[in-house]
Amino acid sequence: MEDEIIQKKMMFIMRRAPHGSIYSYEGLEVVLITAAYDQDISMTFIDDGVFALKKDQNTDGIGIKGFMKTYFALDDYDVQKLYVSEESLSDRGLKRDDLIDINIQIMSQKEITNIMNEQDVLFPF
Amino acid sequence: MKFAILIQDGPYNHQASDSAYNFIQAVLKKGHEIIGVFFYNDGVINGTKLMDPPTDDRHIGKKWSALGSTGIDLVICIAAAKRRGITDEVLIPNARISGLGQLVEMAVKADRLVTFGS
Predict the structure, then answer these.
(1) What number of other Cβ atoms are within 10 A of residue B111's Cβ?
(2) What DSSP assignment string belongs to A53-92?
(3) Size of interface A-B (CB pairs under 8 A)
(4) Angle, nearest 10°, between helix axes B101-109 and A23-34?
(5) Do A10 and B8 touch (CB under 8 A)?
């Protein structure tokens, strides 16, 4: 008998800057793997995590491999729920135009909190 | 209740590993189940047997290994481990190196995934 496929709501909380530590990058690796498991995946960008979506990043000067291109591939992995905190953006002087051109939803912290409360699993990175 | 544990930080530098260990002891004491412990990010450094702390301090690697000997699945992420020089040659007994898919499977099977990190 085949195992019943359990689908859970899994949210990846990207709360750290993309560079300066590896959490954002290794967090993204977990997202890509999880995408292969037919789970209901979302990503939330809060605090310095919003910088991950900043356009025109160039990591040459810090000598590390950039991974920004991966965000453009998320749609191909069926990772389509990307929530970005309005407050975190404005606190950092960022506007929609400063971010890469992928399908994201900018929403209030309160709305994000509500979606967070509906999740079965939270992965903080 | 079935718990899965995710550890994101290394031993000694941060309390995450100690807290996770103590949490697991409390969970087991209450009669719940630990379906697995997954070590990711610098958490994989908990899995090296090369650590050699002063003798009057706790030996975190041995504590995890002892826990693993009771049958609790200790999984070190291979991708994170390779970056940090953690291989089968230096791995603590009663742990194993495997892929991120194991973390996803733990998250699916457990009633709660509890994360310890900075």
Answers:
(1) 12
(2) GBSS---GGGTS---THHHHHGGGGT--EEEEEHHHHHHT
(3) 42
(4) 70
(5) no
Q: At residue A2, does pLDDT exceed 60? A: no
- Measured in whole angstroms, how far is the alpha carbon of residue B65 from the centre of its chain? 9
Residue A4: pLDDT above 90? no
Which tokens in the block code for residue A121?
């699993």
Please indicate whether, in this complex, the C-beta atoms of A26 and B104 are within 8 angstroms of each other. no
In chain A, where the domains are located? 9-56+68-124
Q: Chain B contact for A121, CB < 8 A? A: yes
Just give the CATH number of B2-29+41-111. 3.40.1260.10
Residues of A in contact with B8 (CB under 8 A): 23
Please state the domain extents for chain B.
2-29+41-111
Q: Cα(B24)–Cα(A88) distance, rounded to whole angstroms?
A: 34
CA distance A66 to A58: 7
What's the average pLDDT block by block, 10 residues per block, for chain B (118 residues)?
98 97 98 98 98 97 98 98 98 98 98 96
In the three-class reduction of DSSP (H, G, I as helix; E, B as strand; rest coil), residue B70 is classed as coil
CATH 3.40.50.300 fits A9-56+68-124, yes or no: no
A59's tokens:
């990591």
Single pTM value for the model: 0.95
